[in-house]
Design goal:
By secondary structure, this protein is α/β, with parallel strands linked by helices. The protein contains eleven helices and 16 strands. α5 links the parallel β9 and β10.
């Protein structure tokens, strides 16, 4: 029998801030590109008649000996019903004896680590003086990405677009109040991104909403919302115009809808994927070269990020000894 830590969504968010997570994810992305992580392409099933998918993501980080798996469902229609789109658990195991150590709410871990990964990429690739941010979407990831971008760039202006103009307006007002920043909604994607120096796409779009001819030279784009091979938020022109970077090469080649579509339609070839963001961080691949470069970070989300976050969570929650930490015997 062993003691297993259980952290609810609220507990995860109390013990793992985006600010805490940025250096953790920076290290994980470097480890991935240095060969320090084992993470097979995720397994996904979408049973007939089920309005979502079940994904399994096992992995291991050698340096920290973080061993575990994320089991998560993605039901995109949940958002319209006021429910989380991502639900499940990150399971952390002891690499010495195989004992289960922790069970953490996967939706909360995913929200924080995804925004942190975008922050790491933005810090590495966006123009140093970038201050105009565009957010496409108004859900949990949009909220997290505003906070994340403010942590790595001196953002002065936020423009928002979403399919519901009322929800986009409410979201912009909430961000303006929360962060004391100039934030407003726009009625079209093109209007929202017209002056953007950083764009974060955080939608559940199946077909492109962001077109390459609408994005200015010198912009940095974080493509976040799509992690399925048959879904994409941006068109092939944006991919073709960009210096294109990813969180994990084999994952994006298998799951990155934007890149796969651009290769399939002949807009780019496989060599257009210049490298992983960890390679940029490690200094083995050049990131932004010129002020006019349009850079893209395509994130599909990888288990090494979840395990790095879970390892931190386990230690932080154990040491805090708060009453929001539950322990069960298994």
């Amino acid at each position: 029998m062993s003691k297993v830590m259980v952290l609810s969504r609220a507990a995860v968010l109390r013990h793992l801030s985006i600010a805490d997570c940025i250096p953790i994810i920076d290290r994980a992305l470097r480890d991935i590109s240095a060969g320090g992580a084992i993470q097979p392409v995720r397994t996904r099933i979408s049973p007939p008649g089920v309005a979502g998918a079940l994904g399994l993501m096992p992995g291991y980080i050698r340096e920290s000996r973080a061993l575990g798996i994320k089991v998560v469902t993605v039901f995109e229609d949940n958002f319209g019903r006021g429910l989380p789109s991502h639900r499940g658990a990150v399971l952390l195991f002891d690499a010495a004896d195989g004992a289960l150590k922790g069970i953490f709410d996967a939706g909360a871990v995913t929200a924080v680590r995804t925004a942190a990964a975008s922050a790491v990429a933005t810090r590495a690739l966006a123009a140093a003086g970038a201050e105009r941010l565009s957010i496409l979407g108004y859900g949990e990831q949009a909220t997290a990405h505003v906070e994340a971008m403010l942590l790595v760039r001196s953002i002065r202006q936020v423009r928002v677009w979403g399919r519901s103009s009322a929800k986009a307006t409410e979201f912009a007002a909430r961000m303006a109040t929360r962060h004391a920043i100039d934030a407003r909604a726009e009625s079209t994607v093109n209007a929202a991104v017209a002056e953007a120096q950083i764009i974060c796409t955080t939608t559940a779009a199946r077909e492109p909403i962001l077109c390459g001819d609408a994005v200015a030279a010198g912009c940095h784009v974080n493509l976040v919302g799509s992690s399925f091979p048959d879904a994409r938020e941006a068109d092939s022109l944006l991919v073709a115009r960009s210096r294109f970077f990813v969180d994990d090469r084999k994952m994006v080649e298998a799951l990155g809808g934007e890149f796969r579509a651009a290769v399939t339609d002949g807009s780019v070839d496989a060599a257009h994927l210049l490298g992983e963001i960890g390679e940029v961080l490690n200094g083995t691949v050049a990131g932004r070269r010129y002020a006019s470069d349009l850079t893209v970070f395509k994130s599909v989300g990888v288990i090494a990020e979840d395990l790095a976050a879970a390892t931190h969570l386990y230690a932080a929650a154990r040491d805090a000894a708060r009453d929001d930490v539950a322990w069960i015997d298994l």
